[in-house]
Specification:
27% of the residues lie in helices and 17% in strands. The strands form 5 sheets. Strands 11-10-9-5-2-1-13-12 form an 8-stranded parallel sheet. A 6-stranded antiparallel sheet has the order 14-15-16-21-18-19. Strands 6-8-7 form a 3-stranded antiparallel sheet, with no helix packed on it. It is globular, with a radius of gyration of 24 Å. Bound molecules: alpha-D-glucopyranose and calcium ion. The site of calcium ion (CA) has 6 residues, from loops.
């Protein structure tokens, strides 16, 4: 038997991520809200998913859409009230759905009362909740910032003649985890939500929490590669273990870290069960595959290769083969839509590639995460005008580049593929105005293709829609533990057209064939050895043999097929 078989609900569950701002508006202000999520719970349940991860819904001035929290124990006014939240949670429980919330504790908002106190004077009790560098020590050593127009993570503040640290925007000061009081506040706050009955946390940029507070000059090896440095602070694992001991271990919950800067070699330091830290994390190798180096948001010049895609997934599968557990995802609120990025959203290939990618996520080992709209094949919006963008990341980089006199047309082209706003456009529910998302003016443009079949209502009534394929594929995974726990073996390693692998659990064996090609491709799988292959699902039914006994398989463009082998 395979080793990695300690069963649990979060290994067998399927996660559905909701960006609340964009899901469903109920009061016409153009912003999605908690009431909207409640309204759509039956739909979500009907997908067959088990766990909902909500992007931050806490009180926030929204400099970074809720990733800048000003009160960890309250709800963002635009989204509703604590009563709405409690109702959502109980309605989810009634339907057997689990709730995972976002935990954003590397930084708070500068409008959090802790920071307001902290910056007021050098000797106030909250001073040490954040990282301050007194100006009399000179300019602090360089630290990069993601969302700063000057990429400078130190911001000078006149009130106390000192700089504070912000790895993200100036409105997102980094909390000082080295202060035990800060850690206590955070653990108590986590406890508050667990007491309410939530089922877990997705932990925002969690590898960044520990810092060398002497702030030395960056070691040479990290010059221009600051992310791995930020992600390996001296006390990171000590804090994670403490958090586990103080809070996580007391509840039957799941945790998934956003593990930016973490390599396969470091993987088990986070999720080896014996270490008692986290359950899972999202690595960044796939997310950087089509990007230029340097951890930025520039697309790379050449096309990514399927062999690279396979290498990444195979390496990560191996990292968790005996210990730990993986997370499978192809997009989220920070990266463009999966069908536009890893598939092909042209009319000819949209259906097959969207369903092929769903098949991939649902046939790999590791917990699958789907991002709202992925079940109906939502695509990148590719906006032309800077006025239409809302994301601080695109807007700030635009500002920096215009100051430097850079070619903005090149940047705007890049953002059509790279901007986070591609993934944040409102959910496409039906063919009414604004896709049924709002009766008002949506906070971010709706993708016009809701009128061309990319919406829930139309796809519900079409037996052969992306949505209905998704539901069938979800059921297939749920009825076959092999697809959850089975060992993964890569086949046809060097093919740039076909991603093929088997999943094996005891005597049960499945063969997964996924085409990433725009033409029909035939492959020979003699290396697999089987008497009979029985088709379990295909996204292109007309072109698949139900029972096969020879090793030649032909796949239409972006075709996906899952066989059971005998
Ligand atoms: C994470 C979030 C992203 C946010 C950033 C700062 O990467 O996913 O949306 O902007 O952290 O909190
Ligand atoms: Ca609203």
């Amino acid at each position: 038997m395979e080793k990695n078989l300690a069963r649990s609900w979060w290994k067998e569950g399927i996660v559905y991520q909701i960006y609340p701002r964009s899901f469903q508006d109920t009061n016409g202000d153009g912003v999605g809200d908690i009431g909207g999520i409640i309204q759509r719970l039956d739909y979500i349940k009907s997908l067959g998913v088990d766990i909902i991860w909500l992007n931050p819904i806490y009180k926030s001035p929204n400099d970074d859409n809720g990733y800048d929290i000003s009160d960890y124990r309250n709800i963002m006014e635009e989204f509703g009230t604590m009563e709405d939240f409690d109702l959502l949670l109980s309605e989810m429980k009634n339907r057997g759905l689990k709730m995972v919330m976002d935990l954003v504790v590397n930084h708070s908002s500068d409008e959090h009362e802790w920071f307001e106190a902290s910056k007021a004077s050098r000797d106030n009790p909250y001073r040490d909740y954040y990282h301050w560098w007194p100006a009399e020590k000179g300019t602090p050593p360089k630290r990069w910032s993601f969302f700063d127009v000057e990429s400078n993570a130190w911001k000078y503040d006149e009130t106390t003649d000192a700089y504070y640290l912000h790895y993200f925007s100036v409105k997102q000061p980094d909390l000082k985890w080295e202060n035990p009081k800060v850690r206590r506040e955070i653990y108590d706050m986590m406890d508050y939500w667990f007491q309410k009955g939530i089922d877990g946390f997705r932990m925002d940029v969690i590898p960044f929490i520990s810092k060398d507070t002497t702030f030395p000059e960056l070691p040479e090896q990290y010059n221009g590669e600051f992310i791995p440095y930020y992600a390996s602070g001296p006390k990171l694992h000590e804090y994670l273990r403490e958090m586990n001991q103080e809070v996580l271990s007391k509840y039957d919950i799941m945790t998934v870290g956003e593990a930016i800067g973490v390599s396969t070699e470091q993987a088990l330091d986070f999720v080896d069960e014996e270490r008692k830290e986290l359950n899972m994390f999202f690595h960044f190798d796939l997310l950087s595959l089509d990007r230029a180096s340097g951890g930025g948001f520039w697309m790379r010049e050449d096309q990514w290769k399927l062999t690279e895609f396979k290498e990444i997934h195979s390496r990560w599968d191996a990292a968790f083969a005996e210990k730990g557990w993986g997370s499978m995802f192809l997009n989220n609120h920070d990266f463009p839509r999966s069908v536009s990025r890893w598939g092909n959203d042209s009319q000819a290939h949209w259906y097959n590639s969207a369903t092929m990618l769903q098949t991939f996520l649902l046939t790999m080992r590791g917990t699958p995460y789907f991002y709202y709209g992925e079940e109906i094949g939502m695509t990148n919006i590719r906006m032309d005008r800077i006025e239409d963008y809302r994301d601080i990341n695109t807007l700030n980089r635009y500002e920096t580049l215009s100051k430097n006199g850079a070619d903005l047309a090149v940047f705007m082209e890049n953002e059509k593929d790279a901007s986070r706003d591609n993934a944040r456009t409102p959910m496409q529910w039906d063919t009414t105005e604004n896709a049924g998302f709002t009766s008002g003016k949506p906070w971010l443009k709706v993708n016009e293709n809701y009128q061309e079949g990319i919406n829930v209502e139309v796809q519900l009534s079409d037996k052969t829609s992306v949505l209905n394929y998704f539901r069938s594929m979800v059921q297939l995974r749920k009825n076959k533990l092999t697809l959850v726990y089975g060992a993964y073996t890569l086949l046809l390693k060097d093919s740039e057209d076909i991603y093929a692998y088997t999943r094996t659990l005891g005597d049960d064996r499945c063969l997964v064939l996924l085409s990433f090609a725009t033409r029909t491709v035939s492959v020979n799988l003699e290396e697999v050895h089987f008497d009979k292959a029985k088709l379990l699902i295909s996204n292109d039914e007309d072109h698949a043999d139900r029972i096969k006994s020879d090793a030649h398989f032909t796949l239409k463009p972006y075709q996906a097929m899952v066989y059971e082998l005998f």
